[in-house]
Write a structure and sequence with these properties.
Layout lengths: L14 H31 L1 H33 L12 H24 L2
Protein name: DUF202 domain-containing protein
Pfam families: DUF202
InterPro entries: DUF202 (IPR003807)
């Protein structure tokens, strides 16, 4: 809260914008990493590696789209002049991303364990 005239809903800094940019960077890194992973895995695993890469890239696109929606919702909730703004977004997006990273890590570990010879 800012110390203005008491009518400010939140600090007028750029916290929401920085968070949105961080989500966009995360999504773009997920897309790029998935496509590079598909290219690396394709010669040894065939369509399975390509499928995992495409699945990761689609997840990255989902995160990118949801981050935009999340930004607009949060910014709108914090900048309205109502006394009780709508609820802020939950942590579902973070949970989905964490689960995807966990699955990718397990798949990478299995790949290395099975092909280290």
């Amino acid at each position: 809260m800012s110390g203005g005239d008491g009518n400010d809903v939140f600090d007028p800094g750029l916290q929401v914008e920085r968070t949105a940019l961080a989500w966009q960077r995360t999504a773009l890194a997920l897309i790029a990493g998935s496509l590079v992973g598909a290219r690396v895995l394709a010669p040894t695993t065939g369509w399975g590696g390509i499928g995992l890469g495409v699945l990761g890239a689609l997840l990255g696109l989902f995160v990118l789209a949801r981050s935009g929606i999340r930004y607009r919702h949060t910014h709108g909730a914090l900048t309205t002049n109502r006394r009780a703004p709508g609820p802020l977004p939950g942590a579902l997006l973070m949970g989905v991303l964490a689960a995807a990273v966990l699955v990718a890590g397990v798949v990478a570990l299995l790949y290395v364990a099975l092909h280290a010879g």
